[in-house]
Structure formats: C-alpha cells, structure tokens
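Case study B.
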Amino acid sequence: MTTYREAIREAIAEALTADERVFLMGEDVGAYGGCFAVSLGLLERFGPERIRDTPLSESAFVGAGIGAALGGLRPIVEIMTVNFSLLALDQILNNAATILHMSGGQFNVPLVIRMTTGAGRQLAAQHSHSLEGWYAHIPGLRILAPATVEDAGGMLAPALADPDPVLIFEHGSLYNSTGEPGTGPVDITTAAVRRPGRDVTLIAYGGTLHKALTAADELAAGGIEAEVVDLRVLRPLDEATVIKSIIHTHRAVIVDEGWRSGSLSAEVTARIVERAFYELDAPVERVCSAEVPIPYAHHLEEAALPQVPAIVTAARDVVSS
Amino acid sequence: MADFRMPSLGADMETGTVSEWLVKPGDSIRKGDPIAVIDTDKALIEVESFHTGVVGRLVVNTGERVPVGTTLAVVDERTPAERAPAEPSPPPPEPSPAHVLSPLVRRLAAERGMDLTSLRGTGPGDTVTRADVERAAGPEGTVPPGRTEPAAGRATTGPATVPAPPAPPEPARSKASPLARRLARELDLDLATVPGTGRTGAVRADDVRRAAAVRSDAARHAPPVNAPGQAVRQDERREQAMRQAIARAMTRSKREIPHYYLTSTIDMSTALAWLRERNRELPVSERVLPAALLLKAAATAAAEVPRLNGFWIDDGFVPGEAVHLGMAISLKGGGLIAPALHDAAGRDLADLMAGMKDLVSRVRSGRLRAAEMTEATMTVTNLGDQGVESVHGVIYPPQVALVGFGRILERPWAVHGLLGVRPLVTVTLAADHRATDGYTGGRFLAAVGRLLDHPAEL
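Model:
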C-alpha cells in the first residue's frame, strides 16, 4: 500500500532516472518539497538542475516549459492549483495547444503540466475550483484525471511519452488516499469501469470517483446494482466505454465537481444523448457542485459539493423514474 | 366507496389482465359475487367481490394489463337509503360530441379557444369542417395560416402585438423513455396501451417488455382481424409468460426452500381390490379412479400430520385451516397449474372424484375461481399416467410440502417371506426442512401407506 502522493513522487523520480531530458519545475517544488509535499526529497536526490524552483509567475514558467519542450527537453511543470493556472492560460491555450497546428505539424510540444484541482479542504474559493472541464474544451491537449493510486503513479510515464501537451489534474483530497501501487504505465486513452452493475451507470472522475463508489455500495444494499465508470481521460473523452455501459444499464448519473452549467458533465450528457438516445430508459441525472464560489466554512463547503446522499438519491430517482 | 383491486392469485403473480367484466356500473353486488374474469399468466380466473354495494366506475378496461393492487373498479358501499339524498338523480348524459375528423379543424378551434362540441357540423356525417369553425368564429376570427392570435374570451391587456401563447397541443402523446419507444417499435406494440410505472407515469422499457410478454387478452380474442401468424405469436407469448411465471416461482422455491425428500413404496393390492369391488356396483359416471384414492389418502394423511399442511411465512409456520389439496394439472399448450381441491380431507371419495373431474375440465377450459388459485395448502403431483415411476417435486411456495405419486406398476414384491406380483406405487414427499424434519415426513408417508392399506376408512 502506498499513498497517491507517494505514487506521484515515485513516478516523477522514475521518470527523472529513466530520461535525463526530464526535469520538474514549479513554485516551491524544490527546497520546500512542493506545496502538497509531492516533490519532497527530490531536490536532494536529483539536484537543483532538475528540480527547479520558479518565481510566482505562472505565465513565465509555463512559457519556459513550452520553450524547453520545443528545445528537446521533457519538462514536468507543476502549477499549485487550477485556479492559478488561469494566469498561464494564454501559454497553455495559445501556445502549447496550438503550436503543432500553427507550425503545420513541424513542432510538437512534449510538455506535461500537473496541477491540483478540487475542493474539500477548506481552502476557500480561490484554491478550490474544478476547472479541468474548461481545459477539456481545448483541442490539442490531453487531459488526465487520476482517481486511484495506480493511475496517479502510472499516468506520468505515458504522459511524458506523448509528443503533445498533457495536463494532469490531481484532486487535492486524494493525496493522502492509499491503495495498491500499479505495476507500470496505465492506459491514458480509455475510461475504466471500476465496478460492474446492471441498473444504472454512475459516471465520475478524480475526486468524485470514491463518492460514486461509496454511493454504489449504499445502492447495492438497497438492491440497485450501479456500474461505476471512471472517466480518467477527460480529453479526448472515451465515449465508447461510457456508451457501452449505457447500453448495458440504460440509465446514467454523472457526478462532477465542476459547476453544472457548461461543465464536463454537460458534455458527457450530450454525448450520451447523441450516441445512445434510444438506449435511455430515464432522463440523465447530474450531481454537480452548487453554482457558487466554493465556500470556506466547512459545512457550507460540504453543502456545495456533490456528496454521497445526493448521488444515491439521483440514482434511485433515475432507476424509478 | 371501496376499491376493487387486482388481486394476487398466487405467489408468482405480478400483473393480471381484466379479461371480462361480469358486472357493469350500476349493478348491485354482494360480497362473494363474481365480479370479473382475470387472466393471470396461467389461467382465466373468476374473481369474487369483497364488498357489497353498487358498482360505480370500471377503472380498467378489458384487455388492459395492470400490476397487482391496481384499482379495477369502485364499489359504492352505501345502502340505497344513504345513497338517495346524495345523488338525487344520475347526471344527464353528456351531449354527444360533434364529429371532428381533421387535425386542421382541431387546431383552428384550439387557436380560437372554441369548444368543438358546441359546433354543428355541416360536413358529411355531420362532420365539423373548417368552414364551420370559421363561420362560428366570425370574420374577425380568421387569421392567416401559421399565425395565432389571442383566443376569444382571453383578451389580454395590451394591443395584440405580442403573439398569444401557442395553442394547447393535441392530446399529449404518452410519456415514454426513448428505450421504451424503441422497444415498442421493435415489438410492434402500441405505446398508448402500455401502462407506465415510472415515477411520473412514464412508460419504461420494463413496462413494454411486460406488455409484450403477454399481449392483451383482447388481442387474443380478436381472431378475425389477426392474421394466422399473429395468433401463433400471441400463443407463443402466452406460453412464454407462463414459463416465466413458473420460472419465478420455482427459482424462488429452490433458492429459498431447503427441500428434503422421502420415498416409500406402497402395496396397492388391497386398495385396488377394494376399489374394483366398489366400482362394480356403480354406474360408469360415478366410478372412482385410483388417482382419486391417492389424493384422498394424501389429504387424510395431511390432516393427521398438520405440520406439513400450511405455509412458511415470515420465518414461521402458518398451518392451513383445512386440507386444501393443490392438484398439479398440466395444460395442453404446456405449463402447469395447481388449483386447490377445497377441504379434500373432509370430502367423501365420490365427492372428491367429482371435484377432481370438475377442476380438470375447468382448468382446460380456463375458468378457475380465485380461491382455488390461492388457497392450496399442500400440492399433489401425479405423473403416473405418463408412466413415470416416481417424482421428486419442487414445493410451490409458500407451501411446505409436495407429494408425488408415480405409476401403479405390477412388480415382484415380498410379503411374509414369499415373493408375489403386486401393484405398487412409489410415493414421495418433498418437504420444507425449515418447517419439518424427516421424522415428520416419515410419519406422513407411513400414514399414506396405512390409509391405502385400509381403503374403507377413506
């Protein structure tokens, strides 16, 4: 057993060892060991050349990462939270995601950006939002959301091997979660069925996967067998796995910590309706965050986020509607 | 007012179809009067009223398939004296509605907020035509096609620059999930005839599957319209539905009931000799078959060992009030039904024989009564006429025992140390181990043997 945090640290260390073009940079990743202690100890092992602290300047260091990638290196750029990544959105969208296209296919940008997303730790609005759905909107990027320890460790190597930019969203509430470390790289093109079932498909990813699994346990106690699909890859979406599950269960509940309007859950809903309308035996339900800035107060924060009882209720409604 | 609901006619029944109403609104009925014929997946069953009063509304039409518990009719339980002041006279009949054929006419009338039933039709067969609507609406009522304007009597506050809300839609199409629609199309089923069980009354895939599994009785009874191929399909569906009903009950039985099995072989020579003597004096119509003797023996033995006669409900044994012996009867088209011979232990042999014949003929013609379907306390299956030597049956839940008889066969059999040829029958008992142990079962089989050895006692 190991933690999500350790699995990522180990994956970074392995990547640094395996390929000398790889380096890690970001705010406080070196001497401080990372804001979430992911890179703790790496500076001592790999030195300041490869574990580089950067100024508080997202646009600058993401831009530097793009330049390094174009120059032949394999940078891993850490952004403290997705909220701050908006300062680098210009670099990510207008450079990383578009250079391949604008260069007529001459220049790939083999960049990996890791960042924390999500709420649940009383860090208030500016550190708690779930904006991965916005990035999943952008062509030219691959968006990953590891929810398990195995995926946390196993996604980095294939992300680095991808010649194009890959963004990895790590849900802040998962760093302390434990699980079996995987045995190597995991597939970064498909969704995963985490629990088989026949009555309803719960579609979740990242921080909401474990809530969906808990809800499935509760539903099973009431005689409803929920299938739980972990999207894992938010872009390009693995439509096939989702549709296959819907064809099996005919009902869907999507759990997304993003806001409902224009969210990833909206996209998944649309895909289901486009591709599997005549398989649906009930309207698609969504359990999303309340459309407010995520509050600081503990009980308000809890109330704003998708929680297990809401997922259970939605699933029951869908099964009986 | 009391509701007459779809009864549950057996542990395996989830839905039923009203095949025939035996009453009509306004009929006076007494408790126990047959009120409707219900088609379960297995048979047509006459159901008696639980109420005394006057039949009000019939809620469910014949041919409609509904879940157990659905209100089928409303019965007014008040006495005529109580009823009189409240309802001085039946409401006058509604004026017969005008004939309206064209959707265009409906739309035009809806746009003008007109009541179509108040219009006089001038078209063929008094059909209301577009001209009738426009004439009734007056010249100002005409609007260019494709536009609507405020309906008369609903005049709004300002000048009519804002188009009025769209006309009320045509009768809403039935609410159904996309999957249910697709299935209905594939199964060639009219969605409007399928009752929806969704939270909001929507038709769901399961509803369509259920409806398709057993198409309405009405369809089955409409032979002239049906192509022969379709009739065959209906029969197949019915057969399929019966198979499913048996599958549910038997799967439940084998899953929930820990069966134990006992077998014993009984020398029938005394019994058969006695029966021969008895029958010799009787006209053919009153003669008794050995099968009736076996039934009587089983019933009497069940009365002696009451722990095998009853039900296992909620983790406890509930004894039967009398021995209502279920008699497994196979149907011509396949399948099986086990209606009850009421008070089989208390009836004399001739009576039991008559009851047996009556039950078999009514099962084959499809008219059973509800009590016969639900009240069996123990079941007997006799596969002797198939040449079967012994049958180890599956208990019909929630009963706790099933008795099986094989064929009466002549065999070498040792009696008092001498070998002779004797008519033998193998009787088996399948019993619920939760309710009894082998010792009790053994007592039962011993009693059957003793009774058949002393047939005059039966």
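Residues 2-76 of chain B form a domain with the OB fold (Dihydrolipoamide Acetyltransferase, E2P) fold (CATH 2.40.50.100). The remaining cases will be described in the next quarterly update.
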